[in-house]
Amino acid sequence: MTSNSAAPAVVFDVDGTLVDSERYGHRVAFNEALAAFGLPYVWDEATYGRLLATAGGRQRLRTFLLSQGHAEGEADELAGRLHEDKTARFIELCRQGRVPARPGVEQLLDGCAQTGSTIAVATTGTRDWVAPLLERNFGLQRFHLLVTGSEVPRRKPASDVYDEVLRQLPVERPGDVVAVEDSANGLAAASAAGVPCVIVVNDYTRQEDFSGAELVVDGFREATVWQGCAELLEDGAVTAATLAGLCHRTDPPR
User: Fold this and answer.
1) Residue 117 belongs to domain with CATH number
2) Phi–psi pair at 121, nearest 5 degrees
3) pLDDT tens profile 190-225
4) Looking at 13, 160, 176, 182, which residue is catalytic?
């Protein structure tokens, strides 16, 4: 890929970005697992929003169990079993189509494809649930590259998943890629790899600090390649044309 003529690569996060998975998937599966184990805990949306400050489902469970007075050894063992059960439940929710795409994502993916953009995924979710979720909602054939937490040693905010994407994509430099994320952890991961980042917030992340993002917007819109940045800024939504315009930068991300 050259900085003047080649189409950009657009790299999407999954949880909270492409799909509304936290509200309708992970939280539901966590609660089902807690109930199946006979534990007297229910994570409502406000509680779950606070728990998202801890990255990783197993660690999130462990931190929560410790806060409820479980001994460290018990919390470690129980968190592992709960997380295994929760993951199986979440995969089934994905296969049933109960974890929806965010509104406008389908149109944006279509718009990116129309520009000839390479479409990739960079997530620290594990492949065992990411693949069926993407297949059910979009079809895996839409994505030229899928890199998950199963292939890298460290989760976001570490840059590992973006480093691996850059290693595999035929790009000359990180500025030939644009990331689409929903969280400060995702922004930090992309920025650490030198990749410009657009943030599309959701209800769980809109209060986070997104300093350094190229653009912060509330949601996706029907993406057509002829819509420009001025309309995007006025309407507060991401279009394929804007994503393409953020690539091939000569200056580093702010």
Assistant:
1) 3.40.50.1000
2) -125, 135
3) 999 999 999 999 989 989 999 999 888 888 864 432
4) 13
